[in-house]
Amino acid sequence: MTIECLTRRQVLLGLSGAAVATMLPNTAQASRSTHGVKELHFYNRHTGESSQGSFWVDGQYQADILTEFNQVLRDHRQNVAAPIDKRLFEYLYKLQLTLNNQDEIHVISAYRSPKTNQMLASKSKGVAKKSYHMKGMAMDIAIPGVSTKNLRDAAVSLKLGGVGFYPRDGFIHVDCGPVRRWG
């Protein structure tokens, strides 16, 4: 019987323990690094507040920094903060790595309360009634010195979620929902 006719189980059962062990990835290949620091710097254009910090250190999210970020990224209209999805912070961190840029991220909109989202949706067709902003999963951003086109292209290349392009308004939308793009 040729190897093509054998099932995977038959092949593995016929191999010695040493042979199977050499087929398994080593730990360097199998796991993500848990060493290092991930830092972000936010500036809220509506409130003038900023926050900078290491949100992830050696495999652990830093609760105090995340709480500080949530406050700066709150719904300023209702003065309500909510937890921002950690995947969004990871997305923004990877976006900055892709751009080779460590400058502050200017935030136009992050968390939105349902009340604020409803008010904005009633005034604009560009605001989704079930916006990811209400789940802490979206942010409208700009980075001074980086064109909105380059910012959009870098975000799209990551394939980590939604990317909206608003060049006339000078920002892009990123969210950690399904991969899609518009604008």
UniProtKB/TrEMBL annotation:
Pfam families found in the cross-reference section: Peptidase_M15_2
The cross-references to PROSITE patterns, in alphabetical order and at most eight, read:
TAT
Keyword list (alphabetical) reads: Cell wall biogenesis/degradation, Hydrolase, Metal-binding, Metalloprotease, Protease, Signal, Zinc
Q: In which pathway does it act?
A: Cell wall biogenesis; cell wall polysaccharide biosynthesis
Signal peptide span per the entry?
1-30
Report if keyword Hydrolase is assigned. yes
Name residues in a coiled coil: none
Question: What cofactor is needed?
Answer: Zn(2+)
Family, similarity comment? Belongs to the peptidase M15 family.
Protein name stated in the entry: Murein endopeptidase K
